[in-house]
Design goal:
By secondary structure, the protein is α/β, with parallel strands linked by helices. It has helices spanning 7-16, 34-47, 72-75, 78-84, 120-135, 180-186, 191-196, 218-232, 253-263, 265-269, 312-322, 329-342, 346-362, and strands at residues 23-29, 52-58, 63-66, 87-90, 98-100, 104-112, 140-142, 146-149, 154-163, 167-175, 237-238, 242-244, 277-283, 286-294, 300-307.
Length: 363
């Protein structure tokens, strides 16, 4: 049974925790509003103490969440969403568009980078052990980000990771009984992407856990994850359960600021622009769409780059470098080489080489 502790007590734990001993916090959100939950996750990330490990469990009502560099008008059917009361949200991180409803259970593992490291495989084991012990569901890790079951490897969980100098974050969803018809209704997947994955529709790739065990539900699944988490860290100090609600916005100014940011329409929708040059391509590392407005002076006055790539900073850097430059082949080569020198990983450099070769065929 969950029980509520008051916000001042939460602050007490934060201020008086020992310097290096791992302190584990298990936090539930009582809100199903996607903007509140994204804001809560960001607030927890920004305020995590050097010795803290956090398990945050949450759930969203009907919503579509798009990646930082995605075009809302292309990724989803906004009019249908508006008519049906489906919220649009945009993450700060990259990746593709997903549909969520009360048939999803969301999890976040959050660790301070000061003295501890995030163990992605251990986190996945916590989830898999919870499913096995409480629901007799056997799953396994597939690829870098997914949990699947069965010989056909149907996906019931996807996740993403974020690392900064302050924290490491591993978050994702477990699909219990999501409305798969809604995925098709509200999401507009790139046809090349679907073709490359060898499936005919969005629904074909996923399985609801209730198809394996009809008794599974959000509350029992959260309790099972909490139990598995406690067993995994039985030798460490674990604080009493914390429950955050919409009322918390009035108590924590930083959380309220994040909520206003994620709910702001300008952030969520971005700008809808009629481009003079627009082209799109699917690469092995993701889909990219570039829109350019170039007037008679030959300069790139406006540039938007939409992508489901996880390398957000590289995409933003390229976009910044393109604006104000001459729209010619030689200029594009120089801009791409400039961007190549500004990124850190070999994967990003390879992506820029791919983008350069592609753009030059479009001019």
């Amino acid at each position: 049974m969950f029980y509520r502790i008051r916000f001042p007590l939460i602050q007490f734990y934060r201020n008086y925790s020992m310097k290096h001993e791992p302190i584990h916090r298990i936090i539930y959100s009582s809100s199903t509003n996607i903007w509140f939950n994204l804001a809560t996750e960001e607030w927890l990330s920004n305020t995590i103490k050097p010795n803290e490990h956090i398990l945050f469990l949450w759930q969203n009502d009907k919503c579509v969440i798009i990646g930082r560099n995605q075009n809302a008008w292309k990724e989803c059917f906004l009019e249908r969403m508006d008519n049906d009361g489906v919220l649009l949200a945009r993450r700060r991180s990259g990746g593709g568009a997903v549909y969520q409803d009360l048939g999803n259970t969301c999890f976040t593992f959050l660790v301070s980078q000061a003295h501890h490291k995030l163990d992605k495989n251990l986190n996945s084991k916590i989830l898999l052990d919870a499913l096995q012990s409480s629901f007799n569901i056997q799953g396994h890790i597939h690829g870098r980000n997914d949990l699947v079951c069965g010989s056909d490897k149907r996906k019931f969980s996807g996740s993403a990771y974020q690392n900064t100098h302050q924290f490491s974050l591993h978050h994702g969803t477990l699909i219990t009984h999501v409305d798969t018809n809604a995925m098709k209704k509200y999401l507009n997947p790139n046809k090349e992407k679907l073709k490359s994955k060898g499936v005919d529709s969005v629904q074909a790739r996923v399985i609801n856990l209730c198809e394996i065990n009809p008794s599974i539900n959000h509350k029992d699944l959260c309790l099972a994850i909490e139990k598995s988490y406690r067993q995994t860290y039985s030798n460490n100090k674990i604080q009493p359960i914390e429950i955050l609600s919409r009322e918390t916005l009035n108590l924590i100014p930083e959380l309220n600021t994040s909520y206003k940011f994620f709910s702001d329409s300008q952030w969520r929708y971005g700008q809808k622009i009629s481009f003079t040059h627009e082209y799109e391509k699917r690469f092995p590392w993701g889909t990219i769409s570039i829109g350019i407005i170039s007037q008679r002076d030959g300069l790139i006055h406006t540039c938007e780059i939409y992508s489901d790539s996880l390398y957000v900073n590289m995409i933003n850097r390229l976009k910044e470098n393109l604006i104000g430059k001459i729209y010619t082949g030689e200029s594009i080569r120089q801009i791409c080489q400039q961007t190549r020198k500004q990124v850190e990983t070999e994967q990003e450099k390879t992506m820029i080489d791919d983008i350069q070769s592609w753009i030059l065929t479009q001019i």
